[in-house]
Hints:
Pfam family, one: DUF4096
Largest sheet: none
Oligomer: single chain
Radius of gyration: 14 Å
Shape: flat
Distance between the termini: 13 Å
Organism: Geodermatophilus amargosae
Protein name: Putative transposase of IS4/5 family
Number of strands: 0
Domain Insertion element IS402-like: 7-56
Structural class: mainly alpha
Helix content: 40-55%
InterPro entries: IS402-like_dom
Number of helices: 4
Amino acid sequence: MIEELVPDGLWRRIAPLLPPPKPRRHRYPGRRPIDDRAALAGIVFVLKTGITWNQLLASLVG
């Protein structure tokens, strides 16, 4: 589904514009960050469908 929302051509244009990821702390590293392409796909999905942010996870799962 990510490839449908963010095609390879679009991702090749956007990826160089994103900052490099921050290094994770060794002690208390916290939650693992989500992939940038998956985050962008979520944003595009919300914009295309008009759902709220709270509905995003439920709509992708079910």
